[in-house]
Structure formats: C-alpha cells, structure tokens
Design goal:
elongated; Gag-pol polyprotein; 6 helices; mainly alpha; 63% helix
C-alpha cells in the first residue's frame, strides 16, 4: 500500500491479485491474504496492525472485517489531524518607529 493510497483502493488491488489465477496458480486462503495485507500496510498503520494481531484470531477473521477496521482507523486518524489543524493560531507583531518612541519619551 502506498502512503497516499486509500484503504478501499488497496483492498481492490489485493483482491484483483488474489482472484487472478495467472498470479497465483492456486486459491489463496483468507488468513494468508489477511497476513499479507497486514504486512504491506504503511508505518502509520503499525499501531492498528499490532492491535489486530493481539486482539483478533486472524485465522477466523475475514478480509472485509479487516478492511472495515482499517477504514475506521484511517478515518479517526484523519479526523484527529484535521482538528489539530483547525486549532492553529496566527500571531502578528508590529513595531513602532523610533520617532513614535521618542515622542512618547520611551
């Protein structure tokens, strides 16, 4: 998965490869496909991958469940970053000319 690629696009790419007999010559199992997908995610998904591996039995998980979980994770990350960006404050400064300071005896 590329950094700028959506989870849905990544899912479609993986399914295209998994369903094309020219690439594999055999049907790939669901748990093997999930493991491959988890390994190919970018670093920003590391926390989610670890959570999935520790809390789910990957051998019983289905690809659609994984994709839904990844979409939710990416949505929450994007939402969190958008909130931080909206809270930015811009400061402006102004200086007084030395003439103004002299007039005020500063």
């Amino acid at each position: 998965m590329n950094e700028d690629e959506s989870v849905q696009d990544f899912h479609m790419t993986v399914l295209d490869i998994a369903n094309d007999p020219e690439y594999l010559g055999e049907k790939i199992s669901e748990d093997k496909l999930i493991r491959k997908m988890l390994r190919s995610l970018p670093r920003k998904f590391d926390m989610k991958v670890i959570a999935i591996e520790e809390s789910h039995d990957i051998s019983t998980m289905i690809v659609d469940e994984l994709v839904g979980s990844l979409k939710t994770f990416k949505f929450s990350i994007n939402e969190r970053y958008e909130k931080k960006e909206k809270k930015s404050i811009t400061f402006t400064s102004s200086t007084k000319d030395s003439k103004d300071c002299d007039e005020l005896n500063l």
